[in-house]
Design goal:
Strand content of chain A: over 45%
Distance between the termini of chain A: 36 Å
Number of helices of chain A: 0
Strand content of chain B: over 45%
Order of helices and strands of chain A: EEEEEEEEEEE
Shape of chain A: globular
Shape of chain B: globular
Helix content of chain B: under 10%
Radius of gyration of chain A: 13 Å
Distance between the termini of chain B: 42 Å
Number of strands of chain B: 11
Structural class of chain B: mainly beta
Oligomer: heterodimer
Structural class of chain A: mainly beta
Order of helices and strands of chain B: EEEEEEEEEEE
Chain lengths: 115, 110
């Protein structure tokens, strides 16, 4: 049981390039999330999805787009990468949140550097 | 609105000593609180969660946390630190979206 898998694990981009980060979960979770982690700032929510075909903005959505075409996959896209997007990106998933006590399960992260 | 404040970005303890990590929260609804641990180059793992059933919550690896409504706190403790406890710890509150504190890095001295 793999849990949450993120690909790639590392990537270096040049300013202006585009790329897509892939997140896959095998726990049949309804909810999926994308976060970025920067030193001293904890994790900040970029976008999230409460089900297949739905997405919503989080705390820091600018410069990112997402898609959830299949329940098990959640894609994060950078259309024109900027140095400010250098960060570690985490994907997470959780069961449907009718109650707020459902923990999130995290992938191991994607380390992205924008030159 | 909700927020989480972790007091102290770095904590250094001796092996065998008490570990105390402080977390204060604000929430407009009864809070659901979590502690996560992150080891180097890994994602976050759930240590424990508070869901209103009991104020003292026991988690994995010997950690526990006590919810104090009057102090709006959810501090994490472990009686005796082990070298393997060296990691970064995050407190989080769930108000339909999870909000994280800035994290506390724990180092353990031999």
């Amino acid at each position: 049981n793999a849990g949450v898998t993120q690909t790639p694990k590392f990537r270096v981009l040049k300013t202006g390039q585009s790329m897509t980060l892939l997140c896959a979960q095998d726990m049949n979770h309804e909810y999926m999330y994308w976060y970025r982690q920067d030193p001293g700032m904890g994790l900040r929510l970029i976008h999230y999805s409460v089900g297949e075909g739905t997405t919503a903005k989080g705390e820091v959505p600018d410069g990112y787009n997402v898609s959830r075409l299949k329940k098990q996959n959640f894609l994060l896209g950078l259309e024109s990468a900027a140095p400010s997007q250098t960060s570690v990106y985490f994907c997470a998933s959780s069961r449907q949140g009718a109650t707020r006590n459902q923990p999130q399960h995290f992938g191991d992260g994607t380390r992205l550097s924008i030159l | 609105a909700q927020s989480v404040t972790q007091l102290g970005s770095h904590v250094s303890v001796s092996e065998g000593a008490l570990v105390l990590l402080r977390c204060n929260y604000s929430s407009s609804v009864p809070p659901y609180l979590f502690w996560y641990v992150q080891y180097p180059n890994q994602g976050l793992q759930l240590l424990l969660k508070y869901t209103s059933a009991a104020t003292l919550v026991k988690g994995i690896n010997g950690f526990e946390a006590e919810f104090k409504k009057s102090e709006t706190s959810f501090h994490l403790t472990k009686p005796s630190a082990h070298m393997s406890d060296a990691a970064e710890y995050f407190c989080a509150v769930n108000d339909y979206k999870l909000s994280f504190g800035a994290g506390t890095t724990v180092t353990v001295r031999a």
